[in-house]
Amino acid sequence: MNARVDIAGSAALAVAGMRSGYGEAVVVRDVHLTVQPGEIFALLGKNGMGKSTLLKTVMGFLPLQGGAVSFFGEAVGGLAPHLLARRSLAYTPQEQALFQDLTVEDNLRLALRDRTQFAAGLERIGVHFPFIPQRLKQRAGTLSGGEQKMLLVARALMTRPRLILIDEITEGLQPSVIERMVRVLRAERDETGAAMLIVEQNVQFALAVADRYAVLKLGEIVDTGPVGDGAVAARITDQLSV
Amino acid sequence: MSTLLDILTTAAILYSVCAGLLLVFGVMKIINFAHGGFLTVGGYSALLVTHLGLHPWWAPAFAFVIGAVCGMAIERLVVRPLYSRPLDAILATWGLGIIIGQVITLAFGREVQFVKSPVTGALDLPGGASYSEYRLLLVAVAVALGLTLAAVLEGTRLGLVTRAVIMNENLARALGINSGLVRFATFSLGAGLASLAGSLITPLSSVDPNMGVPWLVNAFMLVMVSGVSLVSLAIACVVLGGAQVLVSQWGNPILGGLTIVVLAAFVLRLRPQGFSRG
After folding, report:
1. CB contact under 8 A, A86 and B171
2. Structural domain boundaries of chain A?
3. What is the pLDDT of residue A79?
4. Which residues of B touch A93 (CB under 8 A)?
5. Out of A97, A106, A113, closest to residue B171 by CB
6. Cα angle value A75/A17/B179 (rounded, 5°)
7. Which candidate, B29, B47, B33, B21, places its Cα nearest to that of B205?
8. A82 close contact with B: CB closer than 8 A
9. Residue B257, Cβ neighbours under 10 Å: how many?
């Protein structure tokens, strides 16, 4: 037990015995995972296995029915989403993740509490996604699907978060954009030391970007480990196909 | 000419009455049925100004402040605990409207009373007719109100944050926006605007504890056909308010009173998004 407390103390994110869901329907049961500072952690699983539910619970959109969540040692279970965001936790949801009717610029500005950071933030994300500074006045809803996903990531990076939660960013993306996402996320981690919890179905992307992985099945983690092992991809694919 | 001015001034009055309701609907996704009660509060604020012997110009400011303070208290004590139960919140506002009417009856009595108008003159129109200056003034007030709200919504951080909450509240929260605070501010502003509108309409009619009710019904329908857009609201007020004026003048005033409700129902039947673009 002490060991777990120590891990939670230093971890960017520590989830211990999480139980969550929608009322009576329990979707996540007894999940333990930790993401260390500067670590990219991929959570894999098929649709309906509880991946998005886990992220929504970490972010405070769903109540914690059991267990604990801590963020850099601070217990944050039950904290409202906006307070988590203000503790430098960025979240990119899978659906309805942009304000479609607002401009690219307004979408980015909404993530920043301090407007003086905008220019510097824009310069930083412009390195990764050069189209964004050029199209600030365009409505976000008129961007292509891939561009919208890039804007999502850009908005998360804008704030220099300490932890980023990313929900299925590769869904519907072409391979070239997926490769770019891998480069951008790893570069950002190397530069700022941000930790990332990435929820994915795309095994190839997840293993390319992450340091560690876990497989979530019916609300429980059935496999976890470092991605380095060459047999990992085959094993995960196998687990996801069952 | 005077029919045209009637249409314009009626639309202006409707716009002032509806603006607060529209904002609250946009941000909180509930129709605030206490809106009629806040209109009444505004009417009696104007009456108080008259009783206190203050110049009638004080009435709108006084009404806005009293309405906003009532709104703050009600949001905090009644509406906020019901955030996760929007239907109950709507019922609660309905009850609140009734309570406000009763409290006002207790304090001021049931009888119809009158308020001084800040402007009493009439403007001569070409062709020998004349038109109430006060009604014309209300057009300027409505335009100023619309422009101010638009400027705040489109041109400030507060407006951007409010629009974000209107469009997608959960996403706004995920980005660090305290949507509870936005709801509180909007509800208070909506109550203040309703009360302000109540003080503006009193010189035209009279003050009684149920004065807000007929306005509430029309305002509700106008907001329903406007979506959440101040521009659509202006269009709806001109079109439906205009129809009301025409029916009252050339048909009869009783039918005129029903015009907005009936036409709005037709509009929604034919075009569910009403006057808004979406």
Report:
1. no
2. 2-96+160-241
3. 93
4. 170-171, 174
5. A97
6. 45
7. B47
8. yes
9. 15
- What ranges in chain A are assigned the alpha helix state H? 2-10, 51-58, 81-86, 104-111, 118-128, 131-134, 145-158, 175-192, 203-209, 232-241
**pLDDT reported for residue A1:** 41
Put simply, the answer to whether B171 touches A85 (Cβ < 8 Å) is: no
What's the topology of domain A2-96+160-241? Answer: Rossmann fold (3.40.50)
Cα atoms in the Cβ-side hemisphere of radius 13 Å centred on A133: 14
Q: Which residues are within 8 A (CB) of A82 and not within 5 positions of it... i.e. 6 or more apart?
A: B173, B174, B175, B176, B177, B178, B179
Residues of B in contact with A113 (CB under 8 A): 176
Structure tokens belonging to residue B196: 């302000």
The model's pLDDT over A132-163, given as tens digits with 9 standing for 90+, comes to: 999 999 999 999 999 999 999 999 999 999 99
Counting other chains too, the contacts that A139-146 makes at CB distance below 8 Å and 24 or more residues apart are: A139/A100, A139/A101, A139/A102, A139/A103, A139/A104, A140/A98, A140/A99, A140/A100, A140/A101, A140/A102, A140/A103, A140/A104, A140/A107, A141/A98, A141/A100, A141/A101, A143/A104, A145/A172, A145/A173, A146/A173, A146/A174, A146/A177
Angle value at C-alpha B203, between B200 and B208, nearest 5 degrees: 95
* Minimum-distance CB partner of A99 among B167, B178, B179: B167
Per-residue pLDDT at A5: 46
Contact between A72 and A89 (Cβ < 8 Å) = no
Q: Is B67 helix (H, G, I), strand (E, B) or coil?
A: helix
Structure tokens at B45: 């604020």
Dist. CA B182–CA B168, nearest whole Å = 13
- Between B95-99, B148-152, B202-206, the lowest mean confidence (pLDDT) is in B202-206
Structure tokens at B10: 């009626």
- Residues of chain A contacting residue B177, judged by C-beta atoms under 8 Å apart: 82, 110
